[in-house]
From TrEMBL:
Enzyme type, top EC level: transferase
InterPro entries xref list: GATase_2_dom, GFAT, GFAT_N, GlmS/AgaS_SIS, GlmS/FrlB_SIS, Ntn_hydrolases_N, SIS_dom, SIS_dom_sf
Record: active site: C2, K600
Domain SIS: 286-426, 458-595
Compartments, record wording: Cytoplasm
PROSITE patterns: GATASE_TYPE_2 (PS51278), SIS (PS51464)
This protein's record includes keyword Secreted: no
CDD domains in the cross-refs: GFAT, SIS_GlmS_GlmD_1, SIS_GlmS_GlmD_2
Gene Ontology MF annotations: transaminase activity
Main location: cytoplasm
Protein name: Glutamine--fructose-6-phosphate aminotransferase [isomerizing]
Keyword entries, A-Z: Aminotransferase, Cytoplasm, Glutamine amidotransferase, Repeat, Transferase
Protein's organism: Microbispora siamensis
Organism phylogeny: Bacteria, Bacillati, Actinomycetota, Actinomycetes, Streptosporangiales
Length: 605
């Protein structure tokens, strides 16, 4: 959600912090601020608004070679200059930026106020700066002060702390909210996301929960909350700064939609075996015997990741004939799930840092569950916590709404389903059919992208509807859910998805000329049933946009996409709906890459 960036080295910190914050803006963005240390005092600027507003508020002479910056997505206290981070202690010696939520903030605040501390803001985060400020006077060591302060803190945090008395040193800590260190040439960085560091270094170290680090220009050391030193090996991120550019597109979202022929090809690369018609998924860390031993697959993820999991469950049931289902990780983690030894759990996350999904993985692991991760961000928390998995290799997804990670996840599930199927009863002929189908996907996605102008027209036509219904049957239902999700989150047009089969059990009452329906109608064994549903909608004067493999007179408008194997068609059917949502949002002049109230990576509960 919120973004953190920190720098210590020989250069002026402010421009580096502002650049890093710009890269993080997609994570959270109702206010921003930074603090640098100069001549044993702190200089701070905080504004409600965008990073550009902060940059405008930072004077040219804002000198200091170490500092911390933050973009905020308000949780405790409204977006305002004073609630923006960094927060200072009352002596103005310590500055803290914080991601996460301090659960015992009220209690700590009352205690500190009782001791005479005056708070400036309404945030939970300020208790950290005030606590550390008190401790640093007792210990005269920033590291010791942070360690002691955090002992009394309950909640989640990623923090970066500076001390006016120690210009060359920053302390960072992680508990449930990511912190990554970036290793430069005689300079060090820290951030909540590699995106903020990538222009300066690709050598990174991820902190684990409960871990802290002191960073200085000439290096870092890491330790646990009980002050035991830890040894960390840096690794090289395979994304570079170019991946974070908009590539000349008006929006990141359109860039990421357009990248899909390539991103899908990357997810597939080196993973299809034409000899045995199987998938090579070395990262699963399971031999054939173990792979055969599972009797059930349970998939968890949040939002679009969950919908891609529904697509995955369908693929696994069809190709591997193993009962499979998907559930929102945010629900799963709270219902004390029964964890069975013969169930394979699969956690999905683009960012690899979604708190609800991470917490669900941790609950599963605690109960002895075998958990795989389907993750885009290499080295992220979920990738590290799982027993094995599949990396998407889709490159960084910057726009808040997920597109290329969604399709790559569905492709990863097709590979997993093929893998599970071929150690069971999926025939070589069917294995071959799926392998060939997978190979056709990138070219077919290219074909779908050529329909953009037509889809743009349709999006304009339907964008001013007060709401839209999305319907699909079985394989088409996750497509409908994801289509509705994309439309609502970026265009703010109300959109509901239903299984087409459920319409007459309730939602048909909503159908009218004012509520158009997007119907997902693949050429599969359910085609006739779907066409009957279109007739029912038509009879209630509902307007219909059909997305499928043919045109139909039952629909007002049709988008026809290339046909693949029935099991893989849902992946392709998703793409016109991404373009539809994008162009509807543009037509309505929405902030496409940064939809209101949303943030890219939800690292709080
Ligand atoms: C929708 C969207 C969100 C994410 C969800 C999970 O377009 O982006 O619904 O899919 O917050 O995020 P990850 O995949 O990072 O765990």
């Amino acid at each position: 959600m919120c973004g953190i960036v920190a720098y210590v080295g020989p250069k002026d910190a402010a421009p580096i912090l502002l650049e890093g914050l710009q890269r993080l803006e997609y994570r959270g963005y109702d206010s921003a601020g930074l603090a640098v240390v100069n001549a044993k005092s702190l200089k701070t600027r905080k504004v409600k608004g965008r990073v550009a507003d902060l940059a405008a508020a930072v004077p040219a002479k804002f000198k200091g070679t170490s500092g911390i910056g933050h973009t905020r997505w308000a949780t405790h206290g409204a977006p305002s200059d004073v609630n923006a981070h960094p927060h200072l202690d009352q002596e103005q010696r310590i500055a803290v930026v914080h991601n996460g939520i301090i659960e015992n903030a009220d209690e700590l605040r009352r205690r500190l106020e009782g001791e005479g501390v005056k708070f400036e803001s309404e945030t939970d985060s300020e208790v950290l700066s005030q606590l550390i400020g008190r401790m640093v006077k007792e210990t005269d060591s920033l590291r010791e002060a942070v360690l002691r302060a955090l002992k009394g803190v309950v909640g989640t945090y990623g923090i970066a702390v500076i001390d006016a008395q120690r210009p060359g040193e920053i302390v960072v800590a992680r508990n449930g909210s990511p912190i990554v260190l970036g290793l430069g040439e005689k300079e060090m960085f820290a951030a909540s996301d590699v995106a903020a560091l990538i222009r300066y270094t690709r050598q990174v170290v991820h902190l684990e929960d409960g871990e802290l680090a002191v960073i200085k220009a000439d290096g870092f050391n890491t330790f646990t909350s009980d002050a035991r030193e830890t040894a960390k090996e840096p690794f090289t991120v395979d994304w570079d700064a170019g991946h974070y550019d908009n590539g000349g597109y008006e929006h990141y979202l359109l860039k990421e939609i357009s990248e899909q022929p390539d991103t899908v090809a990357r997810t597939l690369r080196g993973r299809i075996d034409d000899r045995f018609h199987i998938a090579h998924l070395g990262g699963l860390n399971m031999d054939a015997r173990e792979t055969r031993s599972f009797r059930r697959v349970k998939i968890i993820g949040c939002g679009s990741a969950y919908y891609s999991g529904q697509m995955g469950a369908q693929l696994i049931e069809e190709l591997a004939r193993i009962p499979a289902d998907a559930e929102p990780a945010s629900e799963f983690r709270y219902r004390s799930p029964v964890v069975e030894p013969d169930t394979l759990y699969v956690a999905i996350s683009q960012s690899g840092e979604t708190y609800d999904t991470l917490a669900a993985v941790q609950e599963l692991k605690r109960k002895g569950g075998r958990v795989l991760g389907i993750v885009n961000t290499v080295g992220s928390a979920i990738a590290r916590e799982t027993d094995g998995g599949i990396y998407l290799h889709a490159g960084p997804e910057v726009s808040v709404a997920s597109t290329k990670a969604f399709t790559s996840t569905a492709v990863a599930f097709a590979l997993l389903a093929l893998h599970l199927g071929r150690v069971r009863d999926l025939s070589p002929a069917d294995g071959r059919r799926i392998c060939e189908g997978l190979r056709r996907l990138p070219e077919q996605i290219k074909e779908i992208l050529t329909l953009e102008d037509r889809i743009k027209e349709l999006a304009k036509k339907y964008a001013d509807s007060p709401g839209m219904m999305f319907v699909g049957r079985v394989r088409g239902y996750p497509v409908a859910r994801e289509g509705a999700q994309k439309l609502k989150e970026i265009s703010y047009v109300h959109a509901e998805a239903y299984p087409a089969s459920e319409l007459k059990h309730g939602p048909l009452a909503l159908i009218s000329p004012e509520l158009p329906t997007v119907a997902i109608v693949p050429d599969d064994e359910l085609l006739d049933k779907n066409l009957t549903t279109l007739g029912e909608i038509r009879a209630r004067h509902g307007r219909i946009l059909m997305v499928g493999h043919r045109t139909s007179e039952a629909a007002d408008d049709c988008i026809v996409v290339p046909k693949n194997e029935v099991e893989l068609d849902p992946i392709l059917l998703t793409i016109p709906l991404q373009l539809f949502a994008y162009h509807a949002a543009v037509a309505l002049e929405r902030d496409v890459d940064r939809p209101r109230n949303l943030a890219k990576s939800v690292t709080v509960e």
